[in-house]
Design goal:
This protein has about 500 residues and is of the alpha/beta class. Helix content is about 45%, strand content about 15%. The strands form four sheets. A seven-stranded mixed β-sheet has the order 3-11-10-9-8-4-7, sandwiched between helices. It has a five-stranded mixed β-sheet with strand order 2-12-13-16-15. A two-stranded parallel ribbon has the order 1-14. Helix 8 (about 115-125) runs antiparallel to helix 17 (about 340-355) and helix 21 crosses helix 22. About 40% of the residues are buried. The protein binds pyridoxal-5'-phosphate (PLP).
């Protein structure tokens, strides 16, 4: 397709890469940057401008026959865009953000915030060398998982432990090591998909195991497992149905029953408990989480869980259980590709160590602090935010209201935590626009919109973030008021 004449003119008027490179202001922005990176960035910017002219974003007037300098994109505007994109090169694409969604274990936002002890451990290890896989005793090799094995034995009663990159990797490794080309029996009610990318049936298939579904979605009895055991059965597996609840007329086999049956038939029992609860969360009215220690005690050969869900640590997959079953995972060739790095291991060790002092846990572990905080304290913090925003953005309608926060991360789906939201209505532009500005602001803020109001759940917002959140809100609301429809920046 050939472009109509005004469009061609608008495109032809654009400066070339060399023109842009010759500009003094641009050179100042490019100072110190790699030449190829600068050229690449300018080329990408010019491509973007060309694209928007073709789509008529800036070139609407150009196609109406106006001179491109007015209707197209001026040279100054092009240089400005190039400079902005060069500045972007120096900025981190991974930013810290304020989580006002009320979802505590938010996978999109990095799940569990780390305890200061875990951050300290990362700092200590990151800058230099360490003994991650060498023995100080004899200078020979050591398995990196031994760093946390002792702690996990103490905390869960397991014989052995292994740490991999995440729980999906733990599931894959357990199946590859124990059920390759064999059958694994799983209840139909537990075939979960988590976060859109972890589909148990697909993970099993990629590990080379064959899935044998038994029972019905709402009821599976131990006899269903028993009847399905055949020549090629290698394992019975239970999976915590993390992000959904089957309510009403339900029945499922306990891990004790599953383990007993497995052992009576010379099979292994694998328990994917998902969240990695090391303590009983029912004290905070989060019911239905299987304790790692209970699965071990019930006789599961392998118990699998994430490091960054309820456990409150770094991304990791933990495999605990019987020594021979864990050992087979450790010896599998895939282990090399799934192993955890020293920084995660440092953070995991420091996080697990906190569990040795249960009385301090709620104060030290941010995730538990968020779960355990009394609703009244959340309300006070919400009030503090409202007062600050009222001061910074007078005339805004801002309320605090009772609401519900969620553990998230595939844990205890139907369980909720009483919370308080700060709700902002009557913004001069749609709430969705304000929400977008909040995401793009500094610091980035993630909130939700309901009934055309911005709602910020304060259970997931730390005391230390209130001031920055108030400023971010004031800025987003101010630009909502000043911007007009059709403003290219909106
Ligand atoms: C979250 C979850 C996984 C996946 O764990 P990642 O650490 O995200 O890889 C696997 N199984 C269950 C039951 C889960 O809840």
């Amino acid at each position: 397709m050939t472009d109509p004449k005004p469009l061609q003119d608008a495109l032809r008027q654009l400066p070339s890469v060399n023109d842009v490179l010759a500009d003094a202001a641009l050179q100042a922005s490019a100072e110190g940057l790699d030449y190829n990176a600068v050229v690449h960035s300018i080329r990408a910017t010019l491509d973007g401008v060309r694209g928007s002219i073709r789509r008529g974003v800036n070139g609407a007037a150009a196609s109406a026959g106006n001179p491109p300098a007015q209707g197209g994109v001026s040279r100054e505007a092009v240089i400005e865009s190039c400079r902005e994109n060069l500045a972007q090169l120096r900025r981190s694409a991974l930013r810290s953000a304020i989580n006002a969604t009320g979802i505590l274990i938010h996978t999109g936002m990095g799940r569990a915030p780390l305890a200061s002890g875990a951050i300290e451990a990362i700092r200590n290890i990151a800058a230099g060398y360490c003994d991650v896989a060498v023995s100080r005793e004899d200078g020979g090799r050591r398995k990196r998982s031994t760093i946390v094995e002792g702690l996990l034995q103490t905390l869960t009663g397991c014989e052995a432990a292994l740490v991999v990159n995440n729980n999906a990797a733990a599931v894959m490794l357990a199946l590859a090591a124990h059920a390759r080309d064999d059958e694994v029996i799983v209840s139909r009610g537990q075939l979960v998909e988590i976060g859109g990318s972890f589909r148990l049936p697909e993970v099993m298939e990629s590990a080379g195991a064959r899935l044998r579904e038994v029972g019905t979605t709402n009821r599976t009895r131990i006899a269903d497992y028993e009847n399905a055991i055949g020549e090629s059965t290698a394992a019975l597996m239970r999976i915590h149905p993390s992000n959904f609840d089957i309510v009403g007329f339900t029945e499922s086999a306990s891990i004790q029953e599953i383990a007993d049956l497995a052992h009576s038939r010379d099979l292994i029992a694998i328990d994917d408990i998902g969240s990695g609860a090391l303590i009983d969360f029912s004290a905070w009215r989060l019911e239905g989480e299987s304790l790692a220690s209970e699965s071990v005690a019930a006789g599961a050969d392998l118990v699998l869980f994430s490091g960054d869900k309820l456990l409150g640590g770094p991304q990791a997959g933990v495999i605990i259980g019987r020594a021979d079953a864990v050992g087979a995972c450790a010896r599998h060739p895939m282990m090399r590709a799934l192993r955890v790095d020293k920084l995660s291991l440092a953070a995991l060790e420091a996080t697990l160590r906190l569990y040795l002092e249960p009385a301090k846990l709620a104060a030290e572990l941010p995730l538990l602090r968020m779960i355990a905080e009394p609703s009244e304290a959340v309300r006070r913090r919400a009030n503090r935010l409202r007062t600050r925003v009222k001061k910074l953005a007078p005339g805004i309608s801002i309320e605090i209201e009772k609401d519900i926060a969620h553990a998230g991360g595939g844990s205890t789906p139907s369980q909720s935590l009483a919370s308080w939201v700060v709700a902002i209505a009557d913004a001069k532009s749609p709430a969705e626009d304000v929400r977008r500005r909040l995401r793009l602001g500094e610091p980035a803020v993630f909130a939700r919109v309901r009934r055309d109001r911005i709602e910020l759940d304060i259970r997931t917002v730390a005391d230390s973030e209130i001031e920055a959140l108030a400023s971010a809100l004031a800025a987003a609301l101010a630009s909502a008021i000043t911007s007009t429809p059709g403003d290219p920046k909106s």
